[in-house]
Structures are given as structure tokens and as C-alpha cells.
Predict the structure.
Amino acid sequence: MRLRTLLITALLVAGFLYVTTKSDSPLRRAFAPDNSPLWNNSNTAHSAGLGADEQNTIDIYKNAHDSVVYVTSTVVERNWLFEQVGKALGSGFIVNPGGEILTNNHVVSGSRQLEVTLPDQTRYNARILARDATNDLALIKIEPKHSLRALQMGDSDRLQVGQKVLAIGQPLGLDGTLTTGIVSSLGRTIDGENNRELEGMIQTDAAINQGNSGGPLLDSAGEVIGINTAIYTPSGGSIGIGFAMPINRAKSMLEAIRTGKGIAQPAGPIGIQTMYVSGDYAEALRLPSGGGILVQEVRRGSPAAEAGLHGGIRDVVLGGTEITTGGDLITAVEGKPVNARDALVRAISRKHAGETLGLTVLRDGRTMDIKVTLSEALDSRF
């Protein structure tokens, strides 16, 4: 009896499967009214649609990568026995259809010969038009056979921590490499070439490695907001701490060249040690909650000293931090309220030696305006 039941059940299941898999079966149409298969063919691949951010990244790369070039510098290293010729790799980007290319000064420094390779692998000899060692910038020129596509420049003064950035370059010789990340911090000071400090740098976690130097750091609109310059790398590779020179530094250099003025000597620091205070910290020091840049110390003979800025006179400990108080509080620079710790650095970066910098300071409860005459940039930050 049990065997008969099993046989009947098996026949019913087989009949059901036969009827429902026939293309003209009414029962099959009842289960699949749209004539779609009852199951997916495992050989058919389905791709998910691109997200808006992915498409944005793709579009930026497509629009920008033809404007990013690869710079090969022939350098000679000498010792007391012989000379050794080597090659150094870097990146750059086109800023003029006629072949002007922006890169880092350290990419071309000490070069006997420069060669630029375009993304289509066309090669050109290049010459140096201008160099700004203080900001690690260089403008080089090729003579292309056709008009080139230049990148648009953004405004690095309007950057915010957390916004998306993209780096394109030639890390370790791998041309056309794109990496993405965010602005990790602003206003960083790092050590540059020849013990020269680079101030006001953009910090990013977009992967930057050797060979990326001189390449563009782009925002989500595809505009250049920085020039990839350096990495923090105790292990020799990228660990997500890279630095880019703000593009507004380069704008000043390019404008000076194009107007025939040449590159004026950049202004250097005014000779003060400072601390940015605001909110509760400022109120604890009996300062306005809006805060500002508190002058801790003024170096003798510096532009700040000659302008009459006052440093602090007593030390206090606040939140575990030692602060020298009693000095001037800089509340505005060039008429703009101080709302960031790098406000002073950014203002100086747009100036040249011999120009004046307007500061509004709070001293002993009184507000006054002070003009500081800027001197040439020095290697020292203070």
C-alpha cells in the first residue's frame, strides 16, 4: 500500500513539472503570465546600475585624465669619484592649451633634461618657464603639435574638511592612476625640500605615492583645488596621509607670469607664535567667544615686532595645554573675521615681499588696526 502511494505521488509530480514547463501550457501561463522563465539561467549575468557618486567619479576621470601628463627628469648625482645619471618621475597637468604645465618644483629641481609624456604616449622635451621654491611650484612648457585640453582651476580657500577629492597621477610609474578620498584637514605645515617648511597644506587620505607629485587634486566638480606634493610615509608607501599645495598659491604665480610682472618674492611669516582660540577656551581666557588668533610670542626684529604687535606676558594651563596670555588677539585679517586657525597663513600666501598685511587686534579690551610690512620668505616658520 505504501509503495503504491509513493508511485502515485511520483507520477503526479512528474506530470506537474511536464505540464508547467511546456511553453504553450495554460498552467504554465497561470504561473508565469508574463512568459518569463520560472527561474534564472545561471549563465546570464546582471550588472547593477551605477550610483550617482560612482558616475560622478567616472565622469571626472574621463574629463580630466587627458590633461594629466607624466614628467621624466634626468638628474645627475655626483660624488668625489664619479657622476651617476638617473631618472626621476613625477606628474603635472595642463593649464594652457598651448602647452603650459604646472607641477612641483621638486619634480624638476636639478634636472638636466625634462621630458613630458602625454596620455596618448606622445613625448615632448620641456623647458622651465618659472619656479617658486617657497611654494614648491614650477611651470614648464612643451611645444605640442595640436591644442591641448587644460584643466579648470577651483578655489582652494573655500575647501571644507570632509569634502570629496580625487587624485590623478603616475604613482610608481603607473600612469593614469586615479585614487579618491576626502579633505582630511586644512592648514597643515610640513617639511619640504631643503628644510623649507610648506604652510597651509591640504591633507587628504586619497592615496598618494612617489610619482604623484605635481599631479592634480580635484574636487567633485572636476576643478583643480590642489597640487599633490608630499606624503607622510614612515614605511615608504602610502598610509593615507598625503598633502597638496592649495591651487590658489599657483594662481598667483600664473597671474604674475601672464601679466608680465614675473614672480615676485613671496612673503614670509611675520615672526609670531600663535594659538587659535574660540568658544569656551576663549571665554576661559576672558576673551570674546568668537575668538581669534592669540599672539603668544613675537620675534625680535621681525615684521610683527616692527609693526608693534604684542606677545603674551604670563603662562596659564587650560585643559592640559599651556597658553601664554596677555598678548594681542587677532580678530580679523585683511578685513575678514578670523574663523580658522590658518587664516593668517592663507592671507600671507597671497602676498609678496614689501606688501602690507592688515590686522585687526584686540588689546586690553580695545580694538585697533595694525599694518604689517611683509618681508621675504625665510626657511623658518617662526
